[in-house]
Amino acid sequence: MATPTTQAQEVITCDLCTNPTRKFCNNCQVSLCADCINKHVEKLDSLPHDIVPFKDRKVAIPECEFHSNQRCEAHCQQCDVPVCLKCIFGPHNGHKVKDMPESFNDKKKQLEKETKEIESTIIPQYKKKNEETESKISIIMAKFEELDKEKENHRKFWHQEVDTIFNTLGSLIKFKKENHLAALKSHQSKINNCIPDMIQTVQQNKMIMKSKKVSAITNYKSKLQEYRNMPTDIDVKLPTLKTNTVQGRELSLELGEYKASLTQTTLSSLTEEVSYLSLQKLLEQAKSITTIPTGVNPLHHVACVGVDEAWVSGGDKTIRRVDIHGSVRDTVTTTCQYCPNHITVTRQGELVYSDGDSRTVNIVRHGRSETLITIPQGWHPGILCCTKSGDILVSMYTTDFSQRKIVRYQGHTVKQEIDRDDDGEPIYKGGKYPLYVVENNNGDICASDNNADTVVVVNKSGRVRFRYDGTPARRKKSFNPVPIVTDSMSQIIVADINNDCLHILDQNGQFLRCVDNCGLDKPQGLSVDSEGRLWVGLYKSGEVKVIQYMK
């Protein structure tokens, strides 16, 4: 607001309208135009009014709250408070002060400026932002409505899929029923057709015997042998419907050659996985934490126990438990004639090993080996994997190495065999090299098929999901996968012995990166400890590299 002495006068408007100011009410501290004087007085008729020309206006000066009967003639700029003379020479001594009328005018200008900015700029901005937010709300509501419709469409589709499965099953049952009944009715018809003929023969024979005619008896042709040869019974094998239900996870059924299954990831496990994913990610550069000399040369297998220990085995029948400092904590002499085909650890921390010569899978309890599984004649156990559910996956091979398959054991019982695809073709290639196997968090069974130089991943039901041939990693030498593991993020890690590196894939087979900077000379053993670190056994040197690859 301009003062009476300002040269470039600013137009001062009435506080009640937009007309130029002519008067001022000293009592109410209000600027007024000629038209608004009466309006102001009438509106506040209970109060006294001192209407003066605007140039003669007086700013109401407040009393000092610290000194009685003292008026605040100035405003302290440093403390931003009204002050009287005693204040100026007292606690505010040396502070910069401004006359109250001047301070009043400055404050009023600031107030007007702020009010104008709020009214003309900030409020429109807020309104615009409110409209934008309202638009986002509308978009989100529309998207979620669309998502809900899509969900319902999928519900219908899934129901159709279930109906298709059971309709197919119904048609198959009807077909088998009709075939069986048709065969039996045909058999029944043959039997029924014989009975009248035999009754007629009996009657004719009786008549011949009664007639006592020599010619009738001598001309008799016997049908006894024909009647003795009763139509062969039909062996009807009734089909059985086999079903398996794992609540919240899997439904499967089987009728003869027809098989169908539905699988589902439970919400709780999915939530845990997502929350863990949000906390973990790959390091930009993997780093070797330590190198452990095991004294085992050549080194074949590594199986972590907890955080800082692992079982290791090589070319002899002894399995050793070493800690992260290289100290041997325990040894187990196996029943193997030469050396174990593989070693692993149960969820309870018990050592399990496979003996190819005796065709057994053994567990070590209290320092002694006990046979868990005996493999059928003609097959031998190779690589092992102890699953979260307590099952054991056994990679098997025939005596002549021509065939390989993976078998799931629940105790001594075979629960599942994985060897053929939907077209009846072998999933895994026969050959002299091991078929490494591991189960992922989502139930997938991941295999490192060293004979085919390929990683093969099948789902819980044994259906092939994808294959990985190492091409995306762009290594100099051909891909030669050996041990394979999975981590808490469901990532698949496989050792490539030809290229001295590790390939890391996501659970859907998407290549993520290679670990090739940690001096991995011929990586042959591979395991993950409870801290999420990789323990990599080096074939030639017998060393184990402990590698941190996750944040």
Topology diagram in text:
Layout: E1 23-25, E2 30-32, H1 37-43, E3 51-53, E4 74-76, E5 81-83, H2 85-89, E6 97-99, H3 100-211, H4 214-218, H5 224-228, E7 241-246, E8 250-255, E9 258-263, H6 267-279, E10 282-293, E11 299-305, E12 309-314, E13 318-323, E14 328-333, E15 342-345, E16 351-355, E17 360-365, E18 368-374, E19 379-386, E20 392-398, E21 404-410, E22 413-418, E23 435-439, E24 445-449, E25 454-458, E26 464-468, E27 481-486, E28 492-496, E29 501-505, E30 511-515, E31 523-528, E32 534-538, E33 543-550
Structural descriptors:
551 residues; alpha+beta; Neuraminidase; 2 domains; four-stranded antiparallel sheet; 6 helices
Query: What are the segments in which pLDDT stays under 50 over at least 5 consecutive residues?
Result: 1-8, 265-280
Overall tally of domains:
2
Mean pLDDT: 85
Helix residue percentage: 25-40%
Most strands sheet: 4 strands, antiparallel
Count of DSSP strands? 33
Count every helix, treating DSSP H or I runs of 4 or more residues as helices. Answer: 6
CATH class of the largest domain, anyone?
Mainly Beta
What general form does the structure show? elongated
Strand order of the largest sheet: 10-33-32-31
The class by helix and strand makeup works out as alpha+beta
Provide the CATH topology of the largest domain.
Answer: Neuraminidase
| CATH H-level superfamily of the largest domain | TolB, C-terminal domain
Using the CA coordinates, give the radius of gyration. Answer: 47 Å
CATH architecture of the largest domain: 6 Propeller
Strand residue content: 25-35%
Distance between the termini: 62 Å
